């Protein structure tokens, strides 16, 4: 359960709170862009169930926020930058290369 809670807190809840705060400021200004960083883990089986569910939730949240904020000239989107060379990715690649 700790893994689930950690991923949801960092990967979803924090994005929601930051988007909510940013949206309030942007609606007042009548313009803005909220860009959430997600991954293909939303559609494909990367890493763990909590990771995939968190990324799918982030993508859906971005979509729904975008629809809600459109009337205020605020855009909300979710980007998938592809693989980023993190310690986790490097360790996984080394494990594959050594088998």
Structure description:
Helices cover 61% and strands 12% of the residues. It is an alpha+beta fold. A two-stranded parallel sheet has the order 1-2. Helix 2 (49-69) links the parallel strand 1 (32-37) and strand 2 (74-79). Helix 1 runs parallel beside helix 2 (49-69). The radius of gyration is 16 Å and the shape is elongated. The two termini are 31 Å apart. The model has no long low-confidence stretch (mean pLDDT 88).
pLDDT average, as an integer? 88
Order of helices and strands: HEHEH
Computed Rg: 16 Å
Structural class: alpha+beta
Strand order of the largest sheet: 1-2
Uncertain stretches of 5 or more adjacent residues: none
Number of strands: 2
Give the amount of beta strand, in percent. 5-15%
Tell me about the biggest sheet? 2 strands, parallel
Categorize the overall geometry: elongated
Q: Helical element count?
A: 3
**Helical content, roughly?**
55-70%
Cα(first) to Cα(last) distance is: 31 Å
Task: Provide the descriptors you would attach to this structure in a database record.
99 residues; alpha+beta; two-stranded parallel sheet; 3 helices; elongated
């Amino acid at each position: 359960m700790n893994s689930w809670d950690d991923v949801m807190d960092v990967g979803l809840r924090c994005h929601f709170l930051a988007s909510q705060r940013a949206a309030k400021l942007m609606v007042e200004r009548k313009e803005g862009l909220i860009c959430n960083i997600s991954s293909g883990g939303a559609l494909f089986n990367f890493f763990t169930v909590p990771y995939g569910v968190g990324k799918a939730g982030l993508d859906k949240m971005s979509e729904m926020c975008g629809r809600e904020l459109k009337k205020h000239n605020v855009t909300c989107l979710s980007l998938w930058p592809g693989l980023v060379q993190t310690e986790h990715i490097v360790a996984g690649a080394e494990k594959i290369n050594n088998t």
